[in-house]
Design a protein that fits this description.
By secondary structure, this protein is of the alpha/beta class. The chain contains four helices and four strands; from the N terminus they run βαβααβαβ. α3 packs parallel to α4.
């Protein structure tokens, strides 16, 4: 049975590498978006469950299917300074995902 998806899924993107507060920033945005009724994929949280030996390239390869699962992607402030977030931006644009930069 096919049921139409009602809740919008959002993937959070932002700078992780070289920062120490990324878990807090991603978590705060996740909570904010969930309170508004969105389903959220928080890649920072998912990354915390991966083996320590996971490379950046391996991690990035996991981002694509997570973005595919969502309707939109939310970019945290400072995303422009992240090579990974820029790749995610390009990918989301190619996949016609909604792009959000500020409050939604």
């Amino acid at each position: 049975i096919y049921t139409e998806r009602i809740i919008m899924g959002i993937y959070i993107s932002g700078k992780i590498t070289g920062t120490t507060d990324y878990m807090e920033r991603f978590s705060n945005k996740q909570k904010e978006l969930e309170l508004k009724g969105y389903e959220v994929i928080n890649p920072a949280l998912i990354n915390s469950f991966l083996p320590k030996s996971t490379t950046w390239k391996e991690y990035m390869s996991l981002c694509y299917p997570m973005i595919d699962m969502c309707d939109a992607i939310y970019f945290l402030d400072g995303w422009e300074d992240s090579a990974g977030a820029k790749i995610e931006f390009d990918y989301a644009c190619r996949k016609n995902k909604g792009i959000c930069f500020k409050d939604i």
